[in-house]
Description:
Domain Porphobilinogen deaminase C-terminal: 240-307
Bound molecules: ligand PBG
Function: Tetrapolymerization of the monopyrrole PBG into the hydroxymethylbilane pre-uroporphyrinogen in several discrete steps.
Number of domains: 3
CATH superfamily of the largest domain: Periplasmic binding protein-like II
Subunit structure: Monomer.
Distance between the termini: 56 Å
Strand content: 15-25%
InterPro entries: HemC, Porphobilin_deaminase_cofac_BS, Porphobilin_deaminase_N, Porphobilinogen_deaminase_C, Porphobilinogen_deaminase_C_sf
EC number: 2.5.1.61
Structural class: alpha/beta
Strand order of the largest sheet: 2-1-3-10-4
Low-confidence stretches: none
Number of strands: 13
Order of helices and strands: EHEHHHEEEEHEHEHEEHHEEEH
CATH topology of the largest domain: D-Maltodextrin-Binding Protein, domain 2
Number of helices: 10
Largest sheet: 5 strands, mixed
CATH architecture of the largest domain: 3-Layer(aba) Sandwich
Amino acid sequence: MTIALPTPAQRLKIGTRGSPLALAQAHETRTRLMAAFDLPEDVFEIVVIKTTGDDAALIAADRPLKEIGNKGLFTKEIEEQLLSGGIDIAVHSMKDMPVEQPAGLVLDCNLPRENTADAFVSLTYASIAGLPQGATVGTSSLRRRAQLLNRRPDLNVVEFRGNVQTRLKKLGDGVAEATFLAMAGLNRLGMADVPRAAIAPEEMLPAIAQGAIGIERRADDSRTAAMLAAIHHAETGQRLAAERAFLAALDGSCETPIAGLATLDGGTLRLRGEILRTDGSEALADDVTGAVEDGAEMGRAMAAKLLGLAGDGFFDWK
Ligand SMILES: NCc1[nH]cc(CCC(=O)O)c1CC(=O)O
C-alpha cells in the first residue's frame, strides 16, 4: 500500500500540551515517524494546545484534582482540535486518557512503554519505609495517597502539585519530606539529578497505563492510520488492553483509587490490580496470569471479583 506522506506544503500537525514532558513525548513521536518513513523534520508541525489541566490558577491553588473534575482535564481541548482538523494526531500520556474516546476519534497507537514505576523523591530519605513517624508527604494523587496511608497510616499527606521544579522547591522549603513522581516522566525529561528511588510494584502498584504514550487520530483519516500503524508497539498495546479493561469495568461505580499493571512474559500476561478506600483503610488486590489474547477479559473478570469483595460502603468516602 502506498501512503500519501506529508510534505512541507501539507504538514502533519502533531497536537500536544505545552508541558516539558508533553513536548518530549511529541518530539519522540515525530522522531519515530521520521525514522519509519525516512521523512525530514519540516513535514511535521508541533501544535501546542492549552488544556483546562494546564490552567496556572488551578495549579497554583493546589486544589485537589477531583474538585476540578478530572474527566478529560488534560485532553478535551486537544480532542476538539483533532475533530475540527486543527491537528492530525494528538500525543497523550495514556495515564490521563479516559477509557473511551469521543465519537470520531481512535486511540490505537502506542509507543514502547517507559519505566512503569512510581519514584520516591526526597532530599533526605531513601524510601517510604525510611520516613520517620508522622512525616509529611506531598501528593495530589488519590491512588498514591490511599496506598501510602494503607501502608503507613501515621503519615501526614498534603496536596502537592506543579511541575518537577516546583515540587523540588517545595521539598527544599520543607513543605513536605517526600513526594512521588512517575519514573517515566523523570526518564523522558532526562532529569538524572532528581533524587529518586523506583518503588517496586509490590510496594506501590502504579496507575493504569503509567509510562505509556498513546497517539490519537480521526477515525476516518486512513493516511494517518497507516502511518501510526508503522510505529505502534504491539506489546505495549496488549498490556494496556488488560489494564484499561480493568479500569473500564470499575469506572462509573466510583471515584476510587485504582492501580493496575500488566506485564508480558512471552505469550503469558500477568495482571495485577488494586482498589482502595480513599482514606487507605482498606485495599483489595488480585494477581492473575493468562494468555495475552485474554488480557481484556482478565481485566474485566478481576474488576468484577474485586467489586464483589468490596462490600457496602467501600466507595463511600468524604
Ligand atoms: N497525571 C499527570 C501525569 N500523567 C503522566 C505522568 C507521568 C508520565 C507517565 O506516567 O506516563 C504524570 C505525572 C506523574 O505522575 O508524575
